[in-house]
Each structure stands twice: as C-alpha cells, then as structure tokens.
Backbone:
C-alpha cells in the first residue's frame, strides 16, 4: 500500500476548501477509501488548528462556528499521528543543516524514518529539501497524479 507523510498544508483543505485544493481532496478521498496509508507527526493537530484559527480570526474567512466545524471535520479524518519526541533530534539536525524551521523538519524526519514521501503544499519546504531528497518531497499535485 502507498504510504505518505502529510503536513497541515495538505490536510487543512480537507476541512476548509481553498482554491487549488483539488489534489489535497483527492488524497483525502483515496485515504478514506483505504487506498493510502497516511502519517504525520502529532504536531499536525496544532498546526492545522492554528491554520483554521487564522482563517477565522485573522483573515475573516470563517465564522467562529465554521472554524469549530472545520476542526471537528479534520479531527474525524486525521492520518495516523506519530509522537514528535522521537523525531526531535533528527528534526533539529535537519533544521540546522537546511536552515529551515524545526516544526517543518519534524515532517521530513518522519518521512526519512519511514522511508516514504512527504506530501506538502509548502513551496518553501519543498524548495529546501527537494534538491537533496528528490522524490521524497512531493507537491499535492505530484502525489495526486500517482493515484490514477
């Protein structure tokens, strides 16, 4: 079975559709049908909840009630969550080497540990790691094209 690590940029559109979120929704649907195994560090929940909060309170894109509903939808569809602590040392090493935030490096560390791709819509994260890790870091569009 295909196995991927996903970050908040992939799962937030599952609950709050955005322009260009079609590939993320295709990943969600394949996961819901049991065609994919998805993993993420536990940090995913805080990052996703914060993104929903930003869409509501800071950007005015969601009412408080819509934000609560979006989080409930997301929590009902979460990938397998992996504890952050065992990934922290490698994530810090990656952050120091690639000059990229540790919280993003937790996802990369999990992908490396599990020997599976990280799917992210975060262009800066892909740019930081794709030259070295190649196909280990995929955009949602690249990942969704593999589902055909």
Residues:
């Amino acid at each position: 079975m295909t196995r991927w690590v996903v970050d908040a940029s992939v799962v937030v559109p599952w609950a709050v559709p955005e322009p260009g979120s079609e590939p993320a929704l295709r990943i969600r649907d394949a996961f819901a049908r049991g065609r994919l195994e998805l993993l993420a560090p536990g940090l995913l929940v805080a990052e996703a909840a914060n993104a929903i909060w930003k869409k509501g309170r800071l950007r005015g894109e969601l009412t408080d009630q819509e934000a609560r509903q979006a989080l409930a939808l997301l929590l009902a569809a979460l990938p397998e969550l992996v504890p952050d602590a065992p990934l922290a040392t490698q994530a810090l090493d990656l952050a120091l080497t690639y000059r990229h935030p540790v919280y993003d490096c937790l996802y990369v560390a999990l992908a490396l540990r599990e020997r599976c791709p990280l799917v992210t819509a975060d262009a800066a994260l892909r740019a930081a790691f794709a030259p070295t890790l190649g196909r280990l870091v995929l955009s949602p569009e690249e990942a969704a094209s593999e589902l055909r």
Observations:
- The longest helix spans residues 43-58.
- The radius of gyration is 15 Å.
- The first strand starts at residue 2 and ends at 6.
- The helical segments are 8-15, 22-32, 43-58, 64-76, 88-98, 102-114, 123-133, 140-145.
